[in-house]
Amino acid sequence: MSDLHHGNRKTRGSSAGGSVATAHASAKLRDISHSRPRGWKAVAGTAIWAVLLAALLVGILAAIGVRFGSEEPAPVPAAEAARQDLAVRATRLADGARQYDGETYAQVASHAAEFSNALGGVWEPWPTGAPAGTTNPPLPTSGADLSTQELAAQALDLSDAAIAAANGLSESIESAPSRPLYLSIALRARLDAQLLAEAAGTEVPACEANAESAGALAASSAGLEKASASREWIETATARLEPAQRNQRLPRINALTTFEEGMVGAGIPDSRMVPAAYPTDESSENLINLGLENYAEILTGANGDARELVNFGCSLYLDSAERSAAPALPGLANERH
């Protein structure tokens, strides 16, 4: 009996001990079950913030033009595509002209290089090398294969492309600075095409113009005063020539007069000064060069059909000496005095 009671007591004691152990285990499980969600929430919160920060960083880098992996470049707007096309054409013309000796080719190469620089250069998606699996698009910037005749055609094509780009610009604040540059490039490239054709012994492309229509397009009070003064300077230089040479240049004087009439006919008040003020250097060469540069400034700053404006400007340069004397960007940097 005593053993049995003793055994029973052992059994009861073991059962009580087990209950206590079970109670402790349950308490620990409750503690763990309560503490675990709090840890997960902290980790999850940290992860969310990390993702948000990473997304923000990627957005900032993308905004400043950094590319990731093999991502293809986004399509460019039409205005940028036109600018890029002109820069490529100018770079090709410069490279081609450098292949030949002679003052004309050196001058054309210099002009074309300045065109490209003024345009901002040729853009490449990955200038330091494309990522694995992609390549920069091939660009026809080499002119090593151009003949002298093809160089003249290349310059004429550049002029036409610049005219098209000027006519294609939207009337916006962002586009406003580009139009005078495109018109200036179009005019200089056309003059270069004429110089290159002369050097190659091929037919010189003509510049057919309507002076009255061009005057109406370029009409402004300031433009009329500048045109009138410039015409007087060119008249003075022309009057100093021998009769035969003078007669050859009289049609230009008539065209300049008609140009002014086109301005007045467009409704501009006639505020011309007679006589006009003259520059300090009154040599015939300077009067003609400065006068032509003033006309280029009027025309490149005008609205309306770019081809008509450029053709009239081109028609005012009567020989290779006058064409060569024009600056790389006619109308944009009148520095002669």
Automatic annotation (TrEMBL):
The UniProt annotation puts the region (Disordered) at 1-20
Q: Where are the transmembrane segments?
A: 42-66
This protein's record includes keyword Transmembrane: yes
Q: Which UniProt keywords apply?
A: Membrane, Transmembrane, Transmembrane helix
The protein here is known as DUF4439 domain-containing protein
Q: Give the species this sequence originates from.
A: Actinobaculum massiliense ACS-171-V-Col2
Lineage, highest ranks first: Bacteria, Bacillati, Actinomycetota, Actinomycetes, Actinomycetales
